[in-house]
Amino acid sequence: MMSIRSVVAGCGHYLPAKTLTNNDLSKIVDTNDEWISTRTGIRARHIVETETTSDLAANAAKMALANAKISAEDLDLVVLATITPDYSTPATALVVAEKVGVKSGVPAFDISAACSGFVYALTLADNMIKLGQVKNALVIGAETLSKVTDWTDRGTCVLFGDGAGAVVLQAKETNDTIGILSTKIFADCKHTTELRTSGGTSTTQSPGFIIMEGKEVFKYAVNALAEGANKAIELANLTINDIDWLIPHQANIRIIDGTAQRMGVDKSKVIVNIENVGNTSAASIPLALSQNIEQGKIQKGQTIVITAMGAGFTWGGAAIKI
Ligand code: UT7
Fold first, then answer.
1. Which of 205-209, 251-255, 270-274, 299-303 has the lowest average pLDDT?
2. pTM of the complete model
3. pLDDT number for residue 100
4. Mode of pairing for the β-strands spanning 77-81 and 136-144
5. Is 249 an annotated catalytic residue?
């Protein structure tokens, strides 16, 4: 039966030029390359100098639009997932819309769901497309986590990086099982303190810095990432064997390996870019997706499953036929 599907028409990404290696960090806090790389899998991360979240997002968006072969004027929705917006208001999505040339009247807003933000944003855009409300949606994950990093805390400052990834979703009326096959998002309000910022507009009048109970988050993450992915696979009526690629949120290589092991997915099918970018929160999945499509690793016709977990706690997954 013909139905409206959300097809991935193009992806894009952007990383700020400056990199910070583990050795650079060892000059700022009491750490070393050996500890960081064996405990996290991270060797370097990109850090903004003067750019803002909207700058990174706009660059990723322009690449996604070019790859989708559409103009910003064709867009009728902009959703941006971030926990590091340019301002409290207006939404950074609007600043990005202005930078890329989106028409007046097109809805643009931010989603705050930490590292799961992109999965949340994709879920929302997909459903608006399936309802027939939207034809071309720009879905972005972008962060400048370096702005909310406590550079004196070795337990967190070694983990995070800045970056952006974007996807153009397009409505297509088709009989084929393509595009977004399933989405599922979750949250657990019993865990609002284990990973959060130390401030906020209504508390300290400043965003503060990321504070984290690393071990607690770690334990929750493997279960949540596996659940997000497994639920997406089940809802898409697929089995693990149908999956060409798993793209887990890039938080820690040990969490990624643990998730794949729990799911019974071979390591060779797991997309990993944490070594060079660290944890970029909402940007993590669209960044990895775009880089791997550009490199030719992820190819048209393949089925991927994305899964994320972050502060809140929030988590969720999606199955996508590229
Ligand atoms: O995006 C989603 C949210 N984030 C995550 O998913 C992150 C989840 N958590 C983690 O990835 C890990 O818990 C960390 C990487 C943050 C920490 O790894 P860990 O294996 O849990 O280490 P730990 O916190 O138990 O610390 C072990 C030791 C401690 O020293 P003592 O007490 O054993 O003497 C720490 O003080 O390592 C020490 N340590 C460090 N040493 C060198 C902590 N950070 C560092 C560091 N360099 N950067």
1. 205-209
2. 0.97
3. 98
4. parallel
5. yes
Question: What value does the mean pLDDT take over residues 264-287?
Answer: 98
Tell me how far apart the alpha carbons of residues 44 and 215 are, in angstroms, rounded to a whole number: 22
In the reported structure, the alpha carbon of residue 207 is separated from the centroid of ligand 1 by a whole-number distance in angstroms of 23
Query: What are residue 126's phi and psi, to 5 degrees?
Result: -60, -45
Nearest residue (CA) to ligand 1, atom 21: 215
- Give alpha helix (H) positions in 73-204: 92-100, 117-130, 154-157
Across the chain, mean pLDDT equals 97
Nearest to 15 by CA among 54, 50, 59: 59
Half-sphere exposure of 185 (CA within 13 A, CB side): 18
Please tell me the distance from the alpha carbon of residue 315 to that of residue 317, in angstroms, as a whole number. Answer: 7
Tokens for 242? Answer: 């149908």
115 is catalytic: yes
Write down the pLDDT at residue 181: 98
Provide the pLDDT for residue 219: 94
| Closest of 296, 314, 228 to residue 11, by C-alpha | 296
Ligand 1: residue of 215, 281, 285 to mutate (most ligand atoms within 8 A of CB) is 215
* Nearest CA, atom 13, ligand 1: 214
Residue 114: the pLDDT is 98
3-state secondary structure of 47: coil
**CA angle (43, 45, 47) in 5-degree steps:** 155
**3-class DSSP assignment, residue 244:** coil
